[in-house]
Amino acid sequence: MKDKSTSTSTTVGFGASEPRGSDPAIAAFRAHVLEGLARSPKRISSRYFYDAEGDRLFQRIMATEDYYVTRAEDEILRGQADAVLDALVNGHQRFSLFELGAGDGAKTKHLLRRALEQGRDPLYRPMDISASALEQLGRSLRKELPALRYQAEQGEYFEVIARSFIDPSDVKAVLFLGSNIGNLTHEQAVSLMRLVAQHLEPEDRLLIGFDLKKDPATILRAYSDEAGYTRAFNLNLLRRINHELGADFDPDRFTHYPVYDPVSGRALSYLISTRDQEVHVPGAGGPIHFRAWEALHTEISQKYDHGMIEAMAEQAGLRITARFTDRNHYFTDVVLGPGTPAV
């Protein structure tokens, strides 16, 4: 994101990052797909779920009865907004609120609205890989919070942090909501937390949403809704590869299969080939073979206990300064400040 700490305008448009459909973006997408399909087992990252149709389907998923994650965190940020703000900004009136993976910003608006009501002057800096999500967010902010200063930038977490967390003039509050951290491996999650920690001054804070371990049946239902939105969300990845990369996946020849391991806390999603088949992706140098019932891994969603969270914070050089939990103890928002990394 661009530096807006000295801006006098109330709203600011989006940055000049590469459009989603630009050649560099397509080249990176193609390279990732080809590398992932050459693996054994095959895998493609869930970060490529989010084109316009993927965004629409994910909104549907979040509205289902079984997808508790959004409701649990919304309860925290709506009902405990004053306490969360106090923990995030340490009494400062002016601050920059960064959000990794902002999406539609619905939950963050509780904090932004309350900050404006308190007479604070937040600069909202949403970041997301999805251009369409950022465009929709910008439109809603101009309508719902016209006094808010904001600036958004498209990109992946590590890339955006490296180019955006460089202005020391405002206190930084960084949000990573929705248990998005659970979509990363443990090593990736700790690396991301460590990268943010390196850019935090003593008064800065990082808030991370963690989906907690709970009844395995509750978790599994969240990834297998009766309406089939999660299935469509996963299969849309194949349609996106066809549309943007010129591949010839037949989504009707794949089925969605989620699993949950209560020992590790990992919820995993797969697309299973229902028959022996070949798929062509331009640039692959030849057909890609799927055996009947071969799995293509598409998503990980890690669930945590408090001990796991504390250990990750220590490894990343962070210390826990506050915790907030919903009434069912399904979810926790943890506020962290700079500390000393584990040796």
Characterization of this structure:
The strands form 3 sheets. Strands 2, 3, 4, 5, 6, 7, 13 and 14 form an 8-stranded mixed beta sheet that branches. A 4-stranded mixed beta sheet has the order 1-12-9-8. The chain has helices at about 25-35, 50-60, 70-80, 80-90, 110-115, 130-145, 155-165, 185-200, 215-220, 230-245, 305-315, and strands at about 40-45, 95-100, 120-130, 150, 155, 170-175, 205-210, 255-260, 265-275, 275-280, 290, 295-300, 320-325, 330-340. It folds into 2 domains: about 30-65 and about 215-300, no CATH class; about 70-210 and about 305-340, Rossmann fold (3-Layer(aba) Sandwich), CATH 3.40.50.150. The longest helix is centred in the last third of the chain and has 17 residues, at about 230-245. It has about 350 residues and is α/β, with parallel strands linked by helices. Mean pLDDT is about 90; it is low at about 1-20. The two termini are about 30 Å apart. The radius of gyration is 20 Å and the shape is globular.
Question: Which features would summarize this protein structure in a list?
Answer:
Rossmann fold, 14 strands, disordered N terminus, globular, 2 domains, eight-stranded mixed sheet, 343 residues, alpha/beta, four-stranded mixed sheet, 11 helices, single chain
Distance between the termini: 32 Å
At the first level of CATH, what is the class of the largest domain? Alpha Beta
Give the H and E element order: HEHHHEHEHEEHEHEHHEEEEEHEE
Radius of gyration: 20 Å
**What share of the residues lie within helices?**
25-40%
**CATH overall fold name of the largest domain:** Rossmann fold
Count of helical stretches: 11
- Mind summarizing the main beta sheet? 8 strands, mixed
Low-confidence stretches: 1-21
* Backbone shape: globular
Q: Average pLDDT across residues?
A: 89
